[in-house]
Amino acid sequence: MKIQIKATNLDLTQALTNYIFDKIGPLEKLLSRLDEKGVAAAWVEVGRTTKHHKQGDVFRAECNLKLPGKLIRAEHEEWDVRRCIDEIKYELHRQIKKYNERIRVQDSRGKELIRKFKGK
Fold first, then answer.
1. Are the C-beta atoms of residues 3 and 20 closer than 8 Å to each other?
2. pLDDT higher for 100 or 112?
3. What are the two backbone dihedrals, phi and then psi, of residue 77, each rounded to the nearest 5 degrees?
4. Which domains does the chain have, with CATH numbers?
5. Which letter, b or e, does each residue of 70-108 get, where b requires 16 or more Cβ atoms within 10 Å of its Cβ?
6. Alpha-carbon distance 120 to 51, whole Å?
7. For the chain, how long is the longest CA-to-CA vector?
8. How far from 5 is each of 27, 60, 93, CA to CA, in Å?
9. How many Å apart are CA 59 and CA 39, to the nearest integer?
10. Which pLDDT score is estimated for 22?
11. How far apart are CA 97 and CA 115, in angstroms?
12. Which of 6, 44, 86, 93 has its CA 20 to 30 A from that of 15?
């Protein structure tokens, strides 16, 4: 799975980049069955919502995960950028499990629908 990171109104440090890869990267295990061709891609955007506030929901994280036949999206605002990343990871995990269950239900009905999702 390819992961692309964009920072808005925020310095993207190496520690933050590593944190994003450590949290979003393991989601690839849930997609191993679908990502045989390497078509899954994640776009992560982190940033500050305002430049002048110091308290409240200042940081924002958003992730778009492109899967065969589906775009999964999660976003969160929090006082800490790392907590935002954690929350989008949980939301993506939940949505990927739901997506995989839907694929399994179709698998029992017929292999043609699965081939269509995989692009074969």
1. yes
2. 100
3. -120, 135
4. 2-118 (3.30.160.100)
5. eebebebebeebbebbbbbbebbeebbeebeeebeeeee
6. 48
7. 56
8. 16, 13, 19
9. 30
10. 93
11. 19
12. 93
> For residue 75, how many C-alpha atoms fall within 13 Å in the half-sphere facing its CB?
11
Contact 8, 75 (CB under 8 A): no
Tokens 């692309």, residue?
4
Q: What angle is formed at CA 34 by the lines to CA 33 and CA 37, rounded to 5 degrees?
A: 110
pLDDT (mean) for 30-48: 79
Confidence of residue 40 (pLDDT cuts 50, 70, 90): confident
Q: Which two tokens stand for residue 32?
A: 């191993």
